Amino acid sequence: MSHPYGGRSHYSVVIVGGGQAGLSLSHCLQQRGIDHLVIEKRSLVHTWRTQRWDSFCLVTPNWQCQLPGWGYIGNDPHGFMVKDQINEWLAGFVEHVKAPAIEGVTVERVFRVPGAGGREHERFTVQTDAGLYTADQVVVASGGYHKPIVPRLAEKLPTDVAQFHSAQYRNPAQLPEGAVLVVGCGQSGAQIAEDLHLAGRKVHLATGNAPRCARFYRGREVVDWLADMKYYDMPVTEHPLREGVRDNTNHYVTGRDGGRDIDLRRFALEGMELYGLLEGFDGGRFEFQPNLRDNLDRADDTYNRINASIDRHIAGQGIDAPPPSVYTPVWEPPEERTRLDLAAAGITSVVWCIGFSPDFAWVDAPVFNGSGAPVHLRGVTNEPGLYFLGLPWLHTWGSGRFSGVARDAEFLAEAIERRKTERRDARTEEMPLRGLHAA
């Protein structure tokens, strides 16, 4: 573990988290000459190396990879980088930024220390397993995906059933022979189910309320259309759901093999078994809600609604494009199956793809709502000098992605610089008063 700036313990800014968000902010602060320290629990950008399966690829086109001073540099801007390419690109970003960082250090608590001269003289203490640091300002850039979610019903499964969270899944060969139950059909669940399906495994998929979208429509990538429509510039404050959009499940689609739709109905035609929401396990049987048809219909409604918005854009702009279309279901559930016998189905493994929960218990500050999520406006909290960065929909759709974090980092860097200047000016104004009192 190396210590920037000769092992000093006080910094103007401490950034907790060395992923793309923390490094993006480091780049922006270096541009402003603001001293800072990045503290990373594992290694810089480690999540992309350690929590992605072997066939993982981006679901957004390469041209959207735009970190500060480090855009996509390959020859396939409309392609989708695979895992090794992503990590190679990120390794270049790490070298480009050269952040003052320490790795393998866990932040255990962040709290404000009262200052003798009032609020402007207060500091944050950053308590780690490698010692104490202090900072005038702190940025939490550790992401929002901390604890893999596995339901308590997992404890009821027989011990000979192998269980994995999506963060642990690597490839079909990792799982024992036999059928697999994949729980969850968001981006990870749908893609992992497809990965197993393409490998010839018998897959049972418990669906949820995840929406889906087209990969290509009317001659172009859907992301290209939405970019032209300024969807990715829409701030959360203008979204119809406002902050509620942060709780939405991501649309399932894939960039695999050049990009394509993921249609669970087509998987069903090919032999994948689909069910509604998993809600229990009892007597050797999984229990599901009878809502498979509703889940599929809602996903298709979103698919068609996005395409319809593109139709309106094309018509409004007078764009010459291939004709519009509406998705028609290729398969309908013949019945709602609410039970699945584990032994009879030959299920030997379960992959939980129901996401992660945030864990900010180590941030000792009154900035959280009743569900434990930070309350902020574009990453700025009501606790002066405390910020968040890299969270989904922090400001726009791209805030937690390669496409929008640079804009958010630049905004916070400006806020940090402004507060740093205000603190300095306040202290300067106080100096003559101190001299008067001394006289």
TrEMBL record:
Molecular function terms from GO: flavin adenine dinucleotide binding; monooxygenase activity
UniProt cross-references to Gene3D superfamilies, sorted A to Z: FAD/NAD(P)-binding domain (3.50.50.60)
Keyword vocabulary terms for this entry: Oxidoreductase
UniProt keyword annotation of Oxidoreductase present: yes
Stated name of the protein: Putative flavoprotein involved in K+ transport
Species assigned in the record: Variovorax guangxiensis
